Amino acid sequence: MSKLPKEHKFIDLSDYGRPIAKVIANSLRNTSFTPIHVTISFIISGLIAIYCIIQGHYWLAAFFLIFKSILDAADGELARIKKTPSYTGRYLDSVADIILNALFFIAIWYITSSSIWICLAAFIGLQLQGTLYNYYYVILRNKFDGDTTSRVFENETPIALEGEKQKHVDILFRLYKLFYGVFDKTIYTLDRTADKGEIFPNWLMTAISTFGLGFQLLIIATMLVAGLKVFIIPFFLIYTIMIFIFIGIRKFFF
Q1: Which of 2, 19, 216, 231 is most buried by its number of CB atoms within 10 A?
Q2: What letter would DSSP give residue 199?
Q3: Which stretches within the chain are classed as H helix?
Q4: According to the model, what pLDDT value does residue 182 have?
Q5: Domain spanning 6-253 has what CATH number?
Q6: Where are the domains of the chain?
Q7: pTM, full prediction
């Protein structure tokens, strides 16, 4: 099932890996592989990328960063193909993402000798960027009943869906709240009425999709192979300013 009706689909710059992700998911349709297996695969790809960054193998690091992004899309595609949506998969995906993001930045900090405090600030900025994108995207999807597991407000532990255990949902939801709670609250505080406003125009969502994790990883990969590793952390710190610009546009016009 598509996440959005045709007239409200936008060019998602962070979703460049979707075509390959669909091929991967379709190839696993009649196998015993589950979306969780694909999620574990993207975790492994991310860890390999981190090792390559530390060892100075930047082209390989770029490959595994982008491959991680593709697999990150493939787990959701496989869940839709097999009609097995789950909160376990949804929260495992998110928890794995934030841990890997932290490790990516630690690895870049290590090879560039940047200030650890600037690195931390850039990581926080990266997460706030991604949170704003997800916040607006989930609002848009929920307006059209385009998603069964993503919620605008993650306030209460959801009831496990068929085929998953409530215990797993409970544990992963607690981890999700631990890692993402402060970011969710911050973005909600900055734009409390986003879910009550007009439907976001496609052009605005395309612009905000530069905050999507796939695009963020593409930027990191590109800067690594271009010999711009020392600028990665400063870039994400400065680009965080765009959060306030996008929210301002949303509030003023929509």
Answers
A1: 216
A2: P
A3: 18-27, 35-55, 58-81, 87-112, 116-143, 166-190, 202-208, 213-225, 232-239, 241-253
A4: 96
A5: 1.20.120.1760
A6: 6-253
A7: 0.93
Percent of the chain with pLDDT over 70: 94
Angle between helices 58-81 and 213-225 (to 10 degrees): 160
CB 73 within 8 A of CB 215: no
* 39-52 residue pLDDT tens: 999 999 999 999 99
| Position 183, amino acid | F
The CA distances from residue 158 to 39, 142, 150, 167, in Å, are 20, 16, 10, 11
What 3 state SS string does 158-183 have?
Answer: CCCCCCCCHHHHHHHHHHHHHHHHHH
Non-local CB neighbours of 208 within 8 Å, separated by 6+ positions: 132, 133, 136, 246
Write the pLDDT tens digit of every residue in 60-99: 999 999 999 999 999 999 999 999 989 999 999 999 999 9
